[in-house]
Amino acid sequence: MTTITDYAPEPGRLVEFRATAAGGPVTPEPLSYLQENHLRRLLANQAAGRSQSPWLATVFDLPGTFRPEAMAAALEKWLDRHPTLLTWFSLDDGGLQRHTVERDTVALEIVPAGEVADIAGYLHERFDEGTDPLRWPPFVAGAIVREDSATVYYAVDHSHSDGYSVMLVFAELRALYEAELAGTPARLPEVGSYVDACVLERERAARLTLDSPEAREWLDFWLSGPPPTFPLELGTEPGRFYPTAAVDLDVFDAAEAEAFSHACKANGAGFSAGWLTALGITAYELADVKNYRGLAVVHTRDEPRWQAAQGWFINLGPVAFPLAGQGEFGEVVARAQAAFEQAQSLARVSLLRVAELLPALDPQGDAAAVPPMASYLDMRHAPGVREWQEANMALLVGPGQTADVSMWLNRLVGRTYLKAQYPDTEAARAAVPRYLEHLVRVLREIARTGRYRINTPVPAPV
């Protein structure tokens, strides 16, 4: 995960694949709750004049002489496999609605863009302008071409993708391209449509009532304490958003990650629960937060057809467990495991649906706000993962504005690293690194010894 402003690709001449299509009538398939919330956030930021880069992108290298015609053909087959990319959205008095372009009218034009002095700046501008979900296409694709290699880039609005989906682009698009070069069919798994997943989500949501156990669990969590937030002072004002700062930290090498996993398993827990436990311990030791309350990212790829699909297949699940009075990591991680399993059981239940049933519940507060989240993603078995480093594969994200802290722990084959985004205020620039340094120390102690003695909270330095 690299912020576009920190991306420095090798120079070359740019070639883009500009998609056009006829039509785009309204179609009956509903938006998912995440799509709807994402678009309302986009519109709220636009109305307030706030900058936002609501896309996800990937870049990777291809060796040898680049063949634009083969890549254009590969991208056409890519669109055939992922129908969500043939849709866009509009807003009228009836609300948000989906449009679908006619596949038979889609054409990809190869457009030479020539030499560009500031390639990262050019890509940032193209991604911001060319991935608008309120018109078609919602994606940008192209390549930085050199004599003996090329860097392929692909960016898409978040409404059609999640972080894991973007990582899948490398293996699939490369396979389609290589198949075009060889004149043979690409050997790829069958894949479902995220549009169908959206329909299923809304059908399930329609059956939910306030008496449903899942709705009660969400309400019990939300009404039993303050909304999840970062435990240290960030120097932010209510209702204000701030430019986003980001930090990346190495946490484990392969052996340390395995040792951490073993420490979790020894207590009947998984890696995710261990990660959440470390978050809770850090909040308790630094800020005397006696009960961890957070939103964990859980996936919704619960059928084989979704495994290789492009789409936004995640949800947030409520996680709560006590820290006060617990002496050891092993005691807490068992409770964290139970809480995480409960969050996973709610993967198909959106808090936004519960808020529809109980309008007095306002989980977001501001349409432009992004809730603070904690994500763990194990990427060791993703397609093509062992070629990522050689191919310089990276996931790119854009800068934006925020009011809280979100964290992602990503496990690769030989490296586990932590990325955090936070508001760029004077207080946050002091508090967040202090918090993360302590968090990493907790994680490494558990990996090194298999244990962690929870310490008495220490007041923040004045």
TrEMBL record:
It comes from Pseudonocardia acidicola. This is Condensation domain-containing protein. Gene3D superfamilies: Chloramphenicol acetyltransferase-like domain (3.30.559.10), Nonribosomal peptide synthetase, condensation domain (3.30.559.30). Residues 31-449 form the Condensation domain. InterPro entries: CAT-like_dom_sf, Condensation_dom. Pfam families: Condensation.
